[in-house]
Amino acid sequence: MTELKTGGAQGYLRIATEEAFITQDVLNAYMRLVAEGYDDPGFQSLWGFYSSSPSERGHKIRDGLLSLGEQRLSDMDRAGVDKAIIALTAPGTHVFKADEAKALTTDANDQLAAACRAHPDRFIGMTAIAPVDPVWSAREIERGHKLGFKAVILNGHVEGEYTDDEKFWPIFEAAQALDTPIYLHPQGPSKGLIGPLLERGLDGAVFGFGVDTGLHLLRLIVMGVFDRFPNLKLIVGHGGEALPYWSYRIDYMHQAGVKSNRYEFLKPLELGKVSNYLKRNVYATFSGMAWEPAIQFSKTVLGSDRIMYAMDYPYQYEPEEVAAQDAMDMSLEDKRAFFQTNAERVFNL
Ligand code: CA
After folding, report:
1. What is the DSSP string of 121-168?
2. With bands split at pLDDT 50, 70 and 90, how would you rate the model's confidence at 58?
3. I want to staple 312 with a disulfide (CB 3.0 to 4.6 A). Which of 17, 30, 226, 287 is the partner?
């Protein structure tokens, strides 16, 4: 592998758009929930492993998540990543009661803002929220905007509730008003969804994350969130959580269901097809999906202006994947859009 360098010699900067961190306080609180037997099998599967696994992977993930300084910067240098857009890791503070969730969220945002101030050329932050209190979260999105954050991280469902429920919509209203994108990131599938996945060890990033997050985005679309908030920008990772691939069949069957009034609550959408919302409101990153066929396919379906590079540090820190994506059969202009300029535009950098 040729040596990867920062600085843009290849014709573009590399901006990694789905990078994770954790505070020591949030990690400690996760460990407490694990020990208390917190009743969420997705959380227990994820953090029962990552919070205490003595494996090499367990140590590497914890060290990487906790670093907002030298270790992260040297890992970025070694992979040729110029800038990292960093968010509180999944499931954020979704698993805590309101008071604790808000205190941990505020502190995580303050710590991330300090790191971004210390390394303004390398780190960009996303605002963490405590969606158990959507109105407070809307105010925290405004505070995060003032702190210089460029997006909002929504770590999936909220104790089994999905954010197409109108009580969560103050979050979308605040994000649209500030023209700041929401990054919908996976966590363990909700209690109602996880059973057969967990039974075969398929609940995590291997498959279950994508099932839960693709479902979440689809629920937002079919329940009219993007008709109510037409300028809302929503980012999903992992190649769009498979929705670009599914979109032809989704369009056909969703419209057939609406026309035949199969479900009383499903109303016609202003833009008709689900895929019209993917092409108007949604952006896909390729965290964990550094695979040219998937990237080329999504470029064809969504357009070269809606796909973005991500590393998914520290969960999938593989510098070879950067080299593989540099080598994609794609024009320099499209590669620059993928690695750099789409992120600059979508995140208002
Ligand atoms: Ca991730």
Report:
1. TTEEEEEE--TTSHHHHHHHHHHHHHHT--EEEE-S-BTTB-TTSGGG
2. very high
3. 287
Q: Please tell us whether the domain made up of 15-346 is placed in CATH 3.20.20.140.
A: yes
Cβ-Cβ contacts under 8 Å for 206 (sequence gap 6 or more): none
Instruction: Provide the sign of the torsion angle of the four alpha carbons 246, 248, 254, 256, taken in this order.
Output: negative
19 CA from centroid of ligand 1 (Å) = 6
- Measured in angstroms, how far is the CA atom of residue 259 from the centroid of ligand 1? 37
Prediction pTM value:
0.98
Instruction: Determine the distance separating the centroid of ligand 1 and the alpha carbon of 166, expressed in angstroms.
Output: 26
How far, in Å, from the CA of 91 to the mean position of ligand 1? Answer: 10
Chain segment 61-96, per-residue pLDDT in tens = 999 999 999 999 999 999 999 999 999 999 999 999
Q: Domain locations in the chain?
A: 15-346
Q: Is pLDDT above 90 for 2?
A: no
User: How far apart are alpha carbons 210 and 220 in whole angstroms?
Assistant: 15
Whole-number Å distance, alpha carbon 77 to ligand 1 midpoint, is 19
> What one-character DSSP code corresponds to residue 190?
P
Note residues around ion ligand 1 (Cβ under 5 angstroms). Answer: 18, 312
From ligand 1's centre to the CA of 111, what distance in Å?
19
CA of 65 to the centre of ligand 1 (A): 11
